[in-house]
Every structure is written in structure tokens, then in C-alpha cells.
UniProtKB/TrEMBL annotation:
Residues 11-126 form the Response regulatory domain. Gene3D superfamilies: 3.40.50.2300, Hypothetical protein af1432. PANTHER family: CYCLIC DI-GMP PHOSPHODIESTERASE TM_0186-RELATED (PTHR45228). This is Response regulator c-di-GMP phosphodiesterase, RpfG family, contains REC and HD-GYP domains. It comes from the Bacteria. Pfam families: HD_5, Response_reg.
Length: 401
């Protein structure tokens, strides 16, 4: 029963103008799978773009419109993990080569196909799709974990630059949910790496830029090359090609202003880049405890630079989130009583010179707690440290009884 429920969720695309083929698929599989049939290529591609959860895509070789080879190749860019199968009456070597080499078809079936062969082919294709999905998920978790470790290390050497990544990541996921953005993995990675370009710049230039002081032509040139440097660092890392592009375009205004000069405008800018642009500027306009009405008023002065829908959603969701955030229990802890999962309310500073050790909004782990302990033993850390603790201690409950 559980297997049947799982199968019923799988989406199978069939692109073939032959009504008998479409009826055959529905008769064989509609009780266990979602079957969507199309008679030409463009309608099928539009559906796939709106429903990028397809597990298996069947196409006939002589598909009206783009043709079966071009259709499967185009579908791969939308749903790369879907298994693609070519159906054809063509038996030439050239047809087989195009199906396998150009369309990257997993399988090639001669028409007419026996019901038993079609059932077997679909089961094999689904097993391949499941395997590829698990491999991709494992790769993403591994890469995400590696990047989080890298960010933790960079935050030690560039705390001012990387202090915003933790709160911005949470805000970005909230906006992604509000906009029904299905795939958030690349957005999360882009947010975590967004300060990378800033970390590469001289602190004097960053300080002048954020204080709205005039820059020399040479300083402006260095600042403008920052997104290029970030893209160069990331673009050759497998699976981070899109992330590098998001960061490259995150300085681009919705109205076409900003960097790069000849970049996309409006909704042609990737939504992840638009989110990063909005949240970065919101961070610098906000007080220590998070966005407030004044911060959004500051952004409204140049509202043409931001996606109006994202700006509205951010104001609606983030202000309410801050109010809930402030209601959570805040504990005053010495370092030896900090716990993994605690979230810093304030920046952690050294005792003497008040240098930044770890930024506000940072969720604590065993590694970061050990780091704080190390700083405390060597340079001294201002204590107690205020943290948000989701589990309210028993003594706090006793105080309020």
C-alpha cells in the first residue's frame, strides 16, 4: 500500500501525437502514476517548466514542433534528474545516435512497444530517477556542509563581512517560501557566500562605501570588480555555476541600475539575485536587533532598485518575524554554559580591545563554542553573552511563576 501511494505521486510526461499511444499510457499507468500527455513539444515544455517534478519523460522521435531530440534536450535543462526515454519507429543508426548522444536518452524503445516491455522500461526508469535524486541530494548535503564549514572559518578572519549570513539565510528562506520558490539550495549557498566579494576588498573602501562617502576613481574601480572576483572564484566549482551567477548579478538593481552595466533588468534578473540584493541592503539599514519600519522606509527612498513584490513580502513577513523573535526567551550565559543551538543576540567582543569575535544572529555549534572558549582563555571575551534559547530553562520558568 505504501509503495502504491509513493508511485501515485510520480509524474510521467508523454509527448507523442498518436492518440493510441497516449491512451495506452493512461490505461496502463494512470491508476498508479500521474500521466500528462502532449501532442507537440512546446506545450509539453511549458508544462514541465510549471511542474518541474517530472520523474520520467517519454517522447516520440518525430514529435511535432521541435522534434523529439530537441524536446528531450530542452527538458533536461529544466528537470535534469528526470529519466528520458525515446519512442520511435525509426530504426536507423543515426536516430539511435541522436537519441543517446544529443538527447541524452536513458533508453530507446522501438514502436510498437509491448505492454510488458513498457512496464519494465518505466520501472527501470523510475529506479534510475530515484538513484539520481538520492545521489544529487547527497552531493548537495556534502557541498552545503563543506561551505558552511568554510564560512565558519572565514568568519574568524573576516567577522565584519560574514556577520550577516545567518540572519540573511533565515530571511531568504522565508521569502523563498512566500514566493513559492521550489528550489532553495542554491539560494542558501549564495546567501552564505554573498559576503565573499566584500571580504576580498580593503576595509577602508568598504567603510567609505557603507558610510556613503565619496570614493576615488581607483577605489570605485576596485569596488566594481568585486562581483567579478567572486564569480571567478566560484564558477569552476561543480554545482556552483548558478550560485556564482546569482552573486554576480546581486548588485544589479531591478530598474537596471548597478553592476554589471549591461546586465538584465526587472524579472530577467534571477529571483535569488534579487533576494540577495534586497536583504543585503536591508541588513545595513537595520538596527542591531533586526529590521524595523525605519529600515524599510530607508529602502523605500530607492524603491525602484528592488523587486516591488519582494519588497512588499519582506516588509509583511520579516517585521512580523522580528516581533515573534523578540518574544523568545533570552538567556544571559557565561561561555561554559552555552549550548549548541543557542543564537547570539549581540556581537561577541573581546574584553580589552572590543574586537569582533562572532557576530549577532550566529547559531552556535560545538565548534563555535570551543572557539569562543579559546578566545576567552587567550584574549578574554565580554560576558555574560546574550543568546536566544528555544528551550526555556527551568529556573526561568520558576522566576515567572
Amino acid at each position: 500500500m505504501e509503495q502504491t501511494k509513493k508511485q501515485a505521486k510520480e509524474l510521467i510526461i508523454v509527448a507523442d501525437p498518436d492518440q493510441k499511444v497516449q491512451e495506452g499510457f493512461k490505461r496502463l499507468f494512470s491508476s498508479h502514476y500521474r500521466i500528462q500527455c502532449f501532442s507537440e513539444s512546446d506545450a509539453g515544455l511549458r508544462f514541465i517548466k510549471d511542474n518541474p517534478s517530472a520523474a520520467v519523460i517519454f517522447s516520440c522521435y518525430n514529435l511535432p514542433g521541435r522534434g523529439g531530440v530537441a524536446f528531450l534536450r530542452a527538458s533536461e535543462t529544466i528537470v535534469p534528474l528526470a529519466t528520458r526515454i525515446m519512442l520511435t519507429r525509426e530504426s536507423s543508426v543515426e536516430a539511435v545516435k541522436k537519441s543517446l548522444n544529443e538527447a541524452h536518452a536513458f533508453m530507446f524503445l522501438d514502436k510498437p512497444v509491448k505492454s510488458t516491455d513498457l512496464i519494465s522500461a518505466l520501472e527501470t526508469a523510475l529506479a534510475h530517477h530515484t538513484f539520481m535524486s538520492k545521489e544529487r541530494a547527497l552531493l548537495e548535503r556534502t557541498l552545503s556542509g563543506s561551505i558552511k564549514m568554510l564560512i565558519d572559518m572565514l568568519a574568524v578572519f573576516h567577522p565584519d563581512a560574514f556577520r550577516r549570513t545567518a540572519p540573511m539565510r533565515k530571511q531568504a528562506l522565508m521569502l523563498a517560501k512566500a514566493t513559492s520558490l521550489r528550489k532553495t539550495w542554491e539560494l542558501e549557498i549564495a546567501v552564505m557566500l554573498s559576503p565573499l566579494g566584500e571580504a576580498l576588498l580593503p576595509k577602508e573602501i568598504i567603510a567609505k562605501y557603507r558610510a556613503a562617502r565619496s570614493l576615488t576613481e581607483q577605489e570605485r574601480d576596485v569596488l566594481n570588480k568585486s562581483p567579478d572576483q567572486t564569480r571567478e572564484l566560484l564558477k569552476n566549482i561543480p554545482q556552483l555555476e548558478k550560485v556564482s551567477e546569482y552573486l554576480y548579478l546581486s548588485g544589479r538593481g531591478f530598474d537596471g541600475s548597478g553592476f554589471p552595466k549591461d546586465g538584465p533588468v526587472g524579472e530577467d534578473i534571477p529571483v535569488a539575485a534579487r533576494i540577495i540584493r534586497l536583504l543585503t541592503d536591508l541588513w545595513y539599514a537595520s538596527p542591531e536587533d533586526g529590521p524595523d519600519a525605519a529600515a524599510f522606509e530607508a529602502l523605500a527612498i530607492n524603491r525602484q532598485k528592488y523587486d516591488p513584490n519582494l519588497l512588499h513580502l519582506a516588509q509583511h513577513h520579516l517585521l512580523g518575524d522580528i516581533e515573534e523573535h523578540r518574544k523568545k526567551h533570552i538567556s544571559h550565559c557565561y561561555i561554559n554554559s552555552l549550548r549548541p543551538g543557542d543564537i547570539l543576540v549581540d556581537d561577541v567582543l573581546t574584553e580589552g580591545r572590543h574586537e569582533l569575535v562572532l557576530s549577532r544572529g550566529h547559531p552556535l555549534t560545538l565548534t563555535t563554542i570551543r572557539r569562543l572558549d579559546h578566545f576567552n582563555r587567550t584574549a578574554g571575551v565580554r560576558q555574560p553573552v546574550r543568546v536566544i534559547r528555544h528551550e526555556v530553562p527551568a529556573e526561568a520558568l520558576a522566576d515567572t511563576a
